[in-house]
Amino acid sequence: MTALAVQAGVSPVPATRDHPPEVGSWPAVAHLLGRTCLPGRERSVSRARAFMAGLLGRAHPLTDNACLIVSELVTNAILHSRSRRPGGEVTVMVLAARDGLIIEVTDDGSASAIPQLQHDPLDMGGRGLILVDALSDSWGCRSGPLATTVWSHLSAG
Asked: Which candidate, 60, 109, 135, 144, has a CA 20 to 30 Å from the CA of 9?
């Protein structure tokens, strides 16, 4: 679990796919490539994509998928959390793992819901996590009263 998540009072929630790393194990398997805090506003989605592209570079084999994942996760954070309120923020962290990348998006939490896949093809919302699920080797979330962190692991293989 990241220091930010610990400060925000985030506790583990079962992953929605595969098995997440043990809480607290990111530092053991990854190192921080970059971190940015963005206002909880729509314009921050393109800023998050630009941050990811600039961090990885266009030649990195995971850049396109990482940019799409961060775009979907930041969009969800802005739409479905308290981050959209005045003064709200979304934090993006990118970690290099031995076998790829870990992307974490932390928002200001939600009183009502945690991120989950929508399985109704006619539902107008919920498609972002379907993309995250398809592009990630594993993903999941940790949620608490003050923050929600959604993470995605992308393997270089």
From this structure: 135
pLDDT digits (tens, 9 = 90+) for 55-89: 999 999 999 999 999 999 999 999 989 999 999 99
Q: How far is CA 59 from CA 93, 107, 139, in A?
A: 20, 29, 24
Question: Which residues, 6+ apart, have CB-to-CB distance to 64 below 8 Å?
Answer: none
Cβ-in-10-Å burial (0-12, 13-18, 19+) of 106 comes to buried
What's the farthest any 2 CA atoms get from each other in the chain? Answer: 41
Residue among 132, 56, 142, 60 at smallest CA distance from 106: 142
pTM for the full model? 0.81
| CA 79 – CA 59 distance, rounded (Å) | 31
The CATH-assigned architecture of domain 3-17+41-155 is 2-Layer Sandwich (3.30)
CB count in 10 Å sphere of residue 41:
15
Task: Pull the structure tokens for residue 134.
Answer: 């398809």
d(CA 48, CA 38): 8
Spatial CB neighbours of 134, under 8 Å, sequence gap ≥ 6: none
